[in-house]
Amino acid sequence: MDKVQQALGRAKKTLSECRYALHLFEKRDETAFTLAAKSIITLGRSVTFALQNMGKEEPRFHAWYGPYQEEMKSNSLFSFFKNKRNAIVHEAADFDMSYLTVVTVWDPAPGAIDAVTADGSLIQSVQMDLIKNRRYAIVTTPNGRREERDVQMSTDKPWWENVEVRSYFMDAPLEFNSLTVVDSCLRYLDYLEAMVDDAERTFR
């Protein structure tokens, strides 16, 4: 196998390792979540390093890679990931992966809110009793009384099995701050995969 194909093989292998790291996001464990993000950020950069090794052997490489390089430089998400990678590698002892985490456990069944307010009562707040796995609304009735009324949920599962957790990079670029950590990593890997596929078509 020549060195160009070896470089392509390393890029594909590293990309597959990044994809494997995505599974760690599925664990409800902060350590696994951080490990997944760090692995993708650092190994993703290794994909481009592997491709760049082709430049020493393949005369067409720089003309092919140039547009990708400029696109990655101008993309704030890629710059963000590059800076994250440099911080992980060079400032490992002081590096902190900061997230904003949103936990959603409120999932009422269709029509549940209408049932609570059918008599004209107004909802003042929604509460959860985590011990009893109970969701209820505090309402003000038409005659001015305050009452607690249970809200039927879309599932009978306990809240800890029905929770939705979404995490965001706290320091993400403004135009990407609505992307979760997982979605940011997926967008990054999808781009790298398209680039590796293009390299394989061009230089095989």
Structural write-up:
This protein is α+β, with helices and mostly antiparallel strands. It has six helices and five strands. It has a three-stranded antiparallel β-sheet, with no helix packed on it. A two-stranded antiparallel sheet has the order 1-5.
**What is the CA–CA distance across the termini?**
11 Å
Biggest sheet character: 3 strands, antiparallel
Oligomeric category: single chain
> Shape from CA axes?
elongated
**How many distinct folded domains?**
2
Q: Give the strand order, joined by hyphens, for the main sheet.
A: 2-3-4
**H/E order of the elements?**
HHHHEHEEEEH
List keywords for this structure.
204 residues; 2 domains; two-stranded antiparallel sheet; 5 strands; 49% helix
Summarize, please:
By secondary structure, the protein is α+β, with helices and mostly antiparallel strands. The chain has helices spanning 3-21, 30-52, 61-74, 76-90, 112-116, 181-203; strands at 99-104, 122-129, 134-140, 146-150, 164-169.
What is the secondary structure topology, with strand pairs?
Blueprint: H1 3-21, H2 30-52, H3 61-74, H4 76-90, E1 99-104, H5 112-116, E2 122-129, E3 134-140, E4 146-150, E5 164-169, H6 181-203
Antiparallel strand pairs: 1-5, 2-3, 3-4
Helix pairs in contact: 1-2, 1-6, 2-4, 2-6
